Amino acid sequence: MRAFIYCRISADRIGAGLGVERQRQDCESLAETLGWTVVDTFIDNDLSAYSGKPRPAYLQMLEAIQAGAATAIVAWHTDRLHRSPAELETFISLCDKHSTIVRTVQAGELDLSSPSGQMTARIVGAVARHEIDHARKRMVAAHAQAAENGRAHGKIPFGYSAVRDDSGAITSRVPDAGEAALVQEAVARILGGEATRAVTQDWTSRGIVTRAGKPWNPRSLREMLMRPTLAGLRSHRGSTSKGSWEPIISEDEHVRLVALYSDPSRRTNRDTRAKHLLSGIALCGLCGSSVQWLSAKGYPNYACTGCTRISRSVKFVDGIVEETLIDLVSNRQYERVTEPVISRQSDVESELAALQARMDTAADMLADGDLDRLGYQRVKSRVEPRLAELKKLMRPVSSSAILDDLRRGEPLQNWSRMTLDARRAAIRLAFGGVVLLKSKGKRRDDTTVLFVPPRDL
After folding, report:
1. C-beta of residue 382 within 8 angstroms of C-beta of residue 257
2. Are 180 and 159 in contact (CB under 8 A)?
3. How far apart are CA 249 and CA 227, in angstroms?
4. pLDDT over 70 percentage in the chain
5. What is the pLDDT of residues 353-371, one digit of tens each?
6. How far apart are CA 381 and CA 217, in angstroms?
7. Rounded CA separation 19/47 (Å)
């Protein structure tokens, strides 16, 4: 029996991959006991099955099963494979079609070719989903309490160093002397009238880089400087409170920076609408980052903004996506997507939360007497128009209406008449994600454009 091993760990805080390595060893021992030959091992490290983000190794394994490379899968537990009911149904259909056997170290054998085995898998999946839903609810409550108490949360931002206890756990944050001085320098220069680009160019010439070792650019510097954390403020779900850590800049400087960067007259490109079909939608199958449109030597490509190792022809990828969507709609395979959903792009959500936090900060400063009414009105007049624009993007969209309009009559002709925004909305509703893999020597390899099933709505 030719078998695949699949391992996954949701959070690798140490970064050593020890969790998946233990899973792999246990799975190899089980395969040896069964007398199976392991032909390949697929590992997704530090990726949650619940989050809905594409898991490159998992998708590659499904492609290999379809190609007949193996007829069995070994995993440490069923919850390592999937925790989404929609994903489970796709997995069951695939295993049933290709007579694939699934064995786990902890949960035994799953016979997905039989109704009873499928029922067992669904029950186990439902229990796992129930457990993680409760865990997330407890986590949300803990985060809310931490925010109310002003405790620090999340990654240590630029400008600060972590304070750890004897066990190595992070207990607080304190200003890092070198980085804090850089933050204060940048704030003083920009509030003094210097351009952000000029500061980043100066920092690059001095060899000053981000925590990831990359040169600063105007966008990354602006996002870093606008964080309420630097002013000792804790933001959580639109509310802002005093943090328990020492600020690097004053709240007044923070509000002035927000007002400065929110000034519409500073924008050099006012049209922020998407101009390409998959920009910000398709993801890199190697690192999970978004891909963006990029013209290289006159040839448009979708290029990864993270690892930069994926670059695929725009014409080729758009063609595959359009063909797959038209085929999906023509065969009415989208009928399960009928409830109203909300299109929530991560960048829209992040900007909305950041702008709301700025308004809350300005309101608190007005109440405390640290900001006069004229200053508050100035911030409000610059922030509120953009807030209104973002909230429009968050309005519910009827998925069935969009896809029904596409199907009515001739889908291909309807597609050609749709606006770019409507096409992008249809893609988001029909697929849980579009993942681009690295081509293995073939310029037109259809298997390198993968589609994630839509999550439960």
Report:
1. no
2. yes
3. 11
4. 71
5. 677 777 777 776 776 666 7
6. 27
7. 12
Query: What is the pLDDT at residue 15?
Result: 42
**For residue 129, which of 48, 50, 11, 52 has the smallest C-alpha distance?**
50
| Residue linked to tokens 């992040």 | 350
What is the Cα–Cα distance from 133 to 138, expressed in whole angstroms?
9
Continuous segment of H or E residues that includes residue 311? strand 311-313
More confidently predicted of 351 and 325: 325
CA distances from 142 to 12, 138, 145, 239 (A): 21, 6, 5, 16
CA-to-CA distance for 47 and 66, rounded, in angstroms?
23
> Which has the minimum average pLDDT: 113-122, 159-168, 267-276, 309-318?
267-276
Tell me the average pLDDT across 132-159.
60
SS3 9: strand
Residue 225 contacts residue 231 (beta carbons within 8 Å):
no
Q: 127, 1, 125, 18: which is closest to 74 by C-alpha? A: 1
Measure CA 210 to chain center. 21
131, 135, 136, 139: CA torsion to nearest 10:
180
Predicted confidence band of residue 240 (pLDDT cuts 50, 70, 90)? low
The answer to whether the beta carbons of residues 426 and 406 sit under 8 Å apart is: yes
Residue in 69, 58, 61, 63 with CA at minimum distance from that of residue 1:
69
> Is residue 75 a contact partner of residue 81, using CB atoms and an 8 Å limit?
yes
Q: Is the pTM of this model over 0.70?
A: no
- Contact predicate 284/310, CB 8 Å: yes
* Residue 293, beta-bridge partner list: 302
What integer is the mean pLDDT of 52-71?
Answer: 87
